[in-house]
Amino acid sequence: MIVNEDTSVDTAHEVGRGPRTVICLPGWFGSSSGWGPGFLDALDTERFRYEFMDYRGYGERRGSGGPYTIDQIAADVLELADDLGVQTFSLVGHSMGGTAIQRVLALAPDRVEAIVGINPVPASGTPFDEEGRQLFESAAADDTARETIVDLTTGNRLSAWWIDRIVRHSRGHSDEEAFGAYLSAWADTDHAADVPVDRVPALAVVGEHDPAVTEEGVRQTWARLHPSSTVVVMRNAGHYPMYETPVRLATILEEFLETHSVAAGKD
Q1: Cα–Cα nearest to 13, from 29, 4, 30
Q2: Residues of 136-157 as b/e, b for ≥16 C-beta within 10 angstroms?
Q3: CA nearest neighbour of 40 among 254, 259, 242
Q4: Which of 38, 52, 152, 214 has the most CB atoms less than 10 A away?
Q5: What pTM was estimated for this model as a whole?
Q6: Element (H, E) at 231
Q7: 139: which residues sit within 8 A by CB, 6+ positions away?
Q8: What is the pLDDT of residue 260?
Q9: Distance from C-alpha of 59 to C-alpha of 172, rounded to nearest angstrom
Q10: How confident is the model over 159-177, as a mean pLDDT?
Q11: CA atoms within 13 A on the CB side of 56
């Protein structure tokens, strides 16, 4: 694993002061502040402490430089946990964050209590056809491509105004260099063989209207690494359930963490 010598992690966006720490990693279009106000308002701040982390080149870490890799994200997560003074924690990863949290699990299995993937891309990488790859590669510089991707992955069913909001957040909260480099990080990195099988309680949430990260795909990738995993199909949601169905997502997430985390009942 090669990481930058300067691995300093800025203070994460923190929600709650509960006894259980949950570190949350955003998707490719997200950031520490890109989870939607409805979702944050629905979180139980007495039972949990949520730490929403920025990747290098994202959010409060714009201009930080790389490396923009899954290994570096995992190293930064562990440094954040150290800075917070917590030995063990749960992990939530949306989309690109879904592969990153599994890398953290591979590097520090004894520190991870439970994992939750929200529309998680696989740890084995994401294959594209030529047209799809060109679309995603063009998104770093082209906001129209970003709009097309958001529209596609939410089932071509949401308003242009909302899609533009997601794109504007992405553009305003990520360096173009970092955004472009992270495509290769989540799409081309295959670290599935390093992920410990069925090591911790695992939950995958899949939006029914997401044609890119489907229930079948998650069962063939995520669930093969975590055979005891719970897979929930989120109705009336595509790739962004934290915006589309925020209260239900928060409810499912916290019910799982409360019931299945290896730390449950040990407060």
Answers
A1: 30
A2: bbebbeeeebbbbbbbbbbbee
A3: 242
A4: 52
A5: 0.92
A6: strand 230-234
A7: 145, 146, 149, 179, 183
A8: 77
A9: 8
A10: 98
A11: 25
Q: Rounded to an integer, what distance in angstroms lies between the CA atom of residue 86 and that of residue 108?
A: 13
Which residues partner with 206 through β-bridges?
A: 233
Q: What is the pLDDT of residue 259?
A: 87
Contact 169, 31 (CB under 8 A): yes
Pairwise CA distance, residues 212 & 8, whole Å:
33
Locate tokens 């359930």: which residue? 241
Report how far residue 23's alpha carbon sits from residue 84's, in angstroms, rounded to the nearest whole number: 11
Residue among 206, 59, 56 nearest 121 (CA) = 206
What tens digit of pLDDT does each residue of 23-50 get? 999 999 999 999 999 999 999 999 999 9
- Give yes or no for residue 267 having a pLDDT over 50: no
DSSP class of 144: H
Q: Which two tokens stand for residue 102?
A: 């599994």
Distance CA 88, CA 253 (A): 18
Q: Which two tokens stand for residue 18?
A: 């509960």
Question: Tokens 């081309």 correspond to what residue?
Answer: 188
* Percent with pLDDT over 90 in the chain: 91
* Token couple for 143: 């906001």
Closest CA to 188 of 69, 88, 77, 76: 69
**Residue type (1 letter), 47:** R
Picking from 106, 109, 140, 148, the residue whose alpha carbon sits closest to that of residue 123 is: 106
